[in-house]
Amino acid sequence: MVQKVRDVMTADPITVRADEPLSTAAKRMRDGDVGAVIVVDGSELRGVVTDRDIAVRAVAEDLDPRTLPTGELAGHDVVATSADDDAETAVELMRTHSVRRLPVMDGEQIVGMVTLGDLAVARDGDSALADISSVAPNN
């Protein structure tokens, strides 16, 4: 049976408005125990910001996360997948666009986030990445 993205995604992803400061995105990541948030402008998808983006593209560049709008770090070429896509389609999108996380859409509505780890668990539960991805964080 072919798995759909909706079967492996995390529903109700954490979002942050594009005009909110980057520090708000970081706090939502911390509080949600996640490494990325979806950036929105109203109900429109603007992109994804990761903990690595914050460290490398903001803090390391001496930008102030208390004043820098999160939307300034969100990528302009947003790649997303549909909840009804096959999981393999999400894998191909990640491979093609060199991303590890994809927002999941149902029409115009953001309904989830699918990660490389989610797909690894779904495709090969015995792989090393699946083992790592399925373990609770130790932080």
UniProtKB/TrEMBL annotation:
<keyword id="KW-0677">Repeat</keyword>
<dbReference type="InterPro" id="IPR000644">
    <property type="entry name" value="CBS_dom"/>
</dbReference>
<dbReference type="InterPro" id="IPR046342">
    <property type="entry name" value="CBS_dom_sf"/>
</dbReference>
<protein>
    <submittedName>
        <fullName>CBS domain-containing protein</fullName>
    </submittedName>
</protein>
<feature type="domain" description="CBS">
    <location>
        <begin position="74"/>
        <end position="132"/>
    </location>
</feature>
<dbReference type="Pfam" id="PF00571">
    <property type="entry name" value="CBS"/>
</dbReference>
<keyword id="KW-0129">CBS domain</keyword>
<dbReference type="InterPro" id="IPR051462">
    <property type="entry name" value="CBS_domain-containing"/>
</dbReference>
<feature type="domain" description="CBS">
    <location>
        <begin position="9"/>
        <end position="65"/>
    </location>
</feature>
